[in-house]
Fold this protein.
Amino acid sequence: MGKVIVMTSGKGGVGKTTTSAAFSAGLASRGHKTVVIDFDVGLRNLDLIMGCERRVVFDFVHVINGDARLNQALIRDKRLEHLYILPTSQTRDKDALTREGVERVLTELREQFEYIICDSPAGIERGALMALYFADEAIIVTNPEVSSVRDSDRILGVLQSRSRRAEEGLDPVREHLLLSRYDPERVERGEMMKVDDVLEILAIPLLGVIPESRSVLKASNVGTPVILDPQSAAGDAYRDAVGRFLGESLPFRFMRPERRGLFQRFLRRSA
Amino acid sequence: MNILSFLRPKSTLPTAEQAKERLKIVLAHERSYASAPDYLPRLQNEILQVIARYVELEQDKLTVKLENFGSTSRLEVNIDLPKTAASVVAGPASQADRKSDDPDAAADEPATDARAVL
Ligand SMILES: Nc1ncnc2c1ncn2[C@@H]1O[C@H](COP(=O)(O)OP(=O)(O)O)[C@@H](O)[C@H]1O
Ligand SMILES: [Mg+2]
């Protein structure tokens, strides 16, 4: 039986889609059969980030409406044999995702896949509620910034009261914090909250710290999950986070400013 | 696109240029749908349902394109039809990882190209 994991945040633009792409590719590259679903109906973007935008004919909403079978809508990733993408629809119909429809699709996916990653839209409206409702685990994507941390706190409240696990009195959704767009230089200068500050406020286990990194834009330009870029610090940080998710205990990296060049280090030491 | 871009492999294009190319293609497609009649999604669905009665529809063996020509537009549905009768709607769809308009992919199994232009 597959596990349903939601990437959620409340706030938009914090890195949910980047994380969904990275995590699903990371799990699949370790041999776990994984599907990543775009829940952002009307604002489809996961297909672009995964680089499969030209291959979409059928989508999530077609499957929910019975206009296509699940296997017709699943797009097999061209790079990773265990990775599939279920793109969303561009429809403006807000009610396209019904709870029964989503449940039916997720139940079918649980039979075929080990991990089902749900890329949530921003907000706490229908789309976001649908994405988290059936979750077994939640990865809260947060930036070290006041509005993002507050929205993460809101979404934790929603998970604890309005998810299926909460409503049915089952074990609660397992929560993980993924702190993204972390800039150690600014943290050092006192301009950005540090990891411990955010942890103190949200008080959920830390899964990873993803540094602010230029390679994320490059990866999205070409439609490749950043975790597949071996040169990228963000890619390394995502690989570590996936490892931790799978139970490995790995030291946290990229939390201090990058080592400077030899010359600058010499200057600092002599200063 | 300039002449030089033919001389270097696609992967060495600056990533920003790749982003622009990808966006142009996907937006041309989406814009044509945005200006299409309201019944288009239903029409397209029904066409695909009919085709699905005869062949196993796989996303990668199917392209649907809408092109605008002034006051009219053209819906083009391209499907790879397997020549063997055996593959007519049976068993679970196994996703083949190719696009029907990818010329190098067409060789591994005999297929006819069915094209419906409406
Ligand atoms: N670690 C990072 N470093 C730099 N830019 C990032 C990072 N993570 C995400 N971004 C950028 O932030 C923006 C929003 O990311 P996205 O994943 O689309 O967020 P969401 O899905 O939460 O709206 C994108 O432009 C993305 O490239
Ligand atoms: Mg997103």
Q: What stands out?
A: Chain A touches chain B through 28 residues (CB under 8 Å). Chain A has a mean pLDDT of 94.
